[in-house]
Amino acid sequence: MLKNLHKVSLLFYPHTRICASKGSTVEIHCSYRYPSRINGHYTTVKKTFWFTKRINDAVDLRTDSDYRGRVEYNCRTGNICTLTIRDLRESDSAVYKFRFTTNRGGKYKGEPGVTLSVTGNVFTGIFINLVPIINY
Predict the structure, then answer these.
(1) Which of 11, 58, 96, 114 could form a disulfide with 51 if both were Cys (CB 3.0 to 4.6 A apart)?
(2) What is the dihedral of CA 41, 31, 98, 75, to 10 degrees?
(3) Domains and CATH numbers, the chain
(4) How high is the pLDDT of residue 122?
(5) Minimal CA–CA distance to 54: which of 82, 96, 12?
(6) Rounded to an integer, what distance in angstroms lies between the CA atom of residue 124 and that of residue 65?
(7) Model's pTM, two decimal places?
(8) Rg of the chain's alpha carbons, rounded to an integer?
(9) 14-73, pLDDT tens digit by residue?
(10) Do residues 108 and 5 touch, judged by C-beta distance below 8 A?
């Protein structure tokens, strides 16, 4: 469910629970829509980011020291955004949420988010693909 005053917006996570091993890489996907016009004015997305923490406001993972150098966003045409976290740590176990803001002052976040569980098990000698293939 998307939280904002504009109920016509939509944010979708294809998977809401992911389990991964310490040291591996995971991708978390979402897609979103928003109204093209609000009160007769064109709407555009100004900022997109992922977060787990809130300190007065949502904290962009790219600025969070716990994730520095390990996260990457790939937001592409069609309003699809992927979060990649490398070298997973058990402390990365959390609920990840996507948020975007618009030029009309809208702040949208997806609830309930994606729960990532990182286990201490490290697999060696085996390639495990943790990224589900999703056709958008």
Answers:
(1) 58
(2) -80
(3) 2-106 (2.60.40.10)
(4) 58
(5) 96
(6) 28
(7) 0.79
(8) 16
(9) 888 999 999 999 999 998 888 888 788 898 889 999 999 877 788 999 999 999 999 999
(10) no
Query: How many CA atoms are closer than 13 Å to the CA of 98, on its beta-carbon side?
Result: 28
pLDDT tens digits for range 85-106: 999 999 999 999 999 888 988 8
Residue whose token pair is 């309003």: 79
Q: Which residues are within 8 A (CB) of 68 and not within 5 positions of it... i.e. 6 or more apart?
A: none
Residues in the chain: 136
Bridge-based pairing of strands 114-119 and 17-21 is parallel
The Cα–Cα gap between 49 and 62 comes to: 8
Cβ contact 75:64 at 8 Å:
no
